[in-house]
Design brief:
Helix content: 40-55%
Oligomer: single chain
Distance between the termini: 128 Å
Number of strands: 9
Largest sheet: 4 strands, mixed
Shape: elongated
Structural class: alpha+beta
């Protein structure tokens, strides 16, 4: 044993004699640095935040979808009512034309002053699109685009035109109809198609529409 090794061994025996145990020396030797303990706490915090976000975002997304679905159900019910109202209004206007003899020398609707611009004969290259106002009992062609309906706040009625000023609020619903001859052989029958459309309730959803089809006799 060299002199340097002997001196080191004596120093170690002196530490033990003063009360330092081998296990204590070992604990000093393998104690984790302060920076390592801080990094482990940060990882735990990130994991806890991730679990918390998953627990919060999940129910919120489900609640948002439920709200969107309830709005869609409400809009679908309103669109169904508007389509049925449109069919009844057109039937009533047709009966009024026939009863008042406002279709002289011809057949409804090609000779009707109300519906003549809205009928599409069999084989026509394009289909005429019109709107109906069930309150004012009027019919008009759409042109390039159709105007959405307005709703009376006090009466709850839907107007195409002529909604009372100060008592009107715009709606998301657009109601149109087409009158198309079934065939040239069966020229006494027409297909009435009423379409109510509205924008989607949430982003990336398809456009909404409700279509109601009914057969009408010309006379």
């Amino acid at each position: 044993m060299t002199f340097l090794k002997l001196e080191t061994y004596i120093l170690k025996l002196g530490r033990v004699a003063k009360g330092d145990s081998a296990s204590k020396v070992s604990s000093y030797r393998f104690q984790a640095p302060r920076s390592s303990r801080a990094g482990f706490t940060l990882v735990e915090t990130l994991v806890a935040l991730t679990i918390l976000l998953i627990g919060v975002v999940g129910p919120l997304s489900v609640a948002a979808r439920n709200v969107s679905n309830s709005v869609y159900i409400q809009n679908s019910a309103t669109a169904t009512f508007l389509a049925q109202e449109g069919v009844e209004a057109i039937r009533n206007l047709r009966d009024n034309d026939l009863l008042n003899s406002s279709v002289p020398g011809g057949r409804w609707p090609t000779s009707s002053p109300t519906f003549s611009s809205c009928v599409t004969l069999a084989g026509a290259p394009s289909t005429a699109v019109c709107t109906v106002d069930s309150v004012n009992r009027t019919v008009a062609t759409c042109g390039s685009s159709c105007t959405p309906l307005a709703r009376s706040t006090s009466a709850g009625l839907f107007y195409q035109t002529g909604c009372p000023p100060g008592d009107c609020s715009p709606t998301v619903f657009t109601r149109t109809f087409t009158l198309k001859q079934v065939s040239s052989a069966a020229d006494h029958e027409l297909w009435l198609t009423v379409t109510v459309s509205w924008p989607p309730e949430r982003a990336n959803a398809p456009a909404r529409s409700y279509i109601l089809r009914s057969a009408l006799l010309r006379n």
